[in-house]
Design a protein that fits this description.
Elements: H1 3-17, H2 24-35, H3 40-50, H4 54-63, E1 75-80, H5 83-87, H6 90-101, E2 114-119, E3 131-133, E4 136-138, H7 143-153
Parallel strand pairs: 1-2
Antiparallel strand pairs: 1-3, 3-4
Helix pairs in contact: 1-2, 6-7
Bound molecules: FE2/S2 (inorganic) cluster (FES).
FE2/S2 (inorganic) cluster binds near residues 85, 121 and 128.
Length: about 160
């Protein structure tokens, strides 16, 4: 990722909202959106510009599930394994995704197309088992339907 892309966006946030602790989350969000993750150099930049210790920055990243310091694939698949989804066979759906993509939960494919994560409740329990791919929601998944969804992403 070109540093100037996220830096330009962060500088816009700082100009608009000022350099304060309260600006940290909006800055992290624009970096995540621009890069797909929060690179180390961005954390250093925020530490220096917002005067916030690294430990606080990592704390915010850890707290918000959509923020990550790990480089991710083009498609980030988040499948829920909380009880309602589990009872509706989310483990079988996960197994199909792992087999189709050749990666396990927590991994990113070598071509950086896919990152697969198992996450707690997405708030879509009425559609269990459910998952998100980037910002898109998929519910009432079956082993057959998830195969089709993955195949469409691979096109
Ligand atoms: S338990 Fe899976 S979305 Fe809520």
């Amino acid at each position: 990722m070109n540093v100037s892309v996220w830096k330009t966006k962060v500088d816009e946030v700082l100009k608009r909202s000022g350099k304060s602790k309260e600006t940290l989350l909006p800055c992290l969000e624009v970096i995540q959106e621009a890069c797909g993750y929060i690179p180390q150099e961005a954390i250093t930049y925020l530490r220096e510009n917002l005067d916030v210790p690294s430990i606080d920055i990592y704390g915010v990243i850890t707290f918000y599930g959509m923020l990550t310091t790990k480089e991710q694939g083009k498609y980030v698949i988040r499948i829920c394994d909380s009880l309602p989804c589990y009872l509706n066979k989310s483990d079988g759906v996960l197994g199909v995704i792992e087999k189709e993509l050749g990666i396990e939960a927590g991994e990113t494919s070598a071509d950086r197309q896919f990152t697969l994560e198992v996450v707690p409740c997405l708030g879509l329990c009425d559609k269990a088992p459910a998952m998100m791919i980037n910002d898109k929601i998929y519910g009432n998944l079956t082993e057959q339907s998830v195969k089709k969804i993955i195949a469409e992403l691979n096109c």
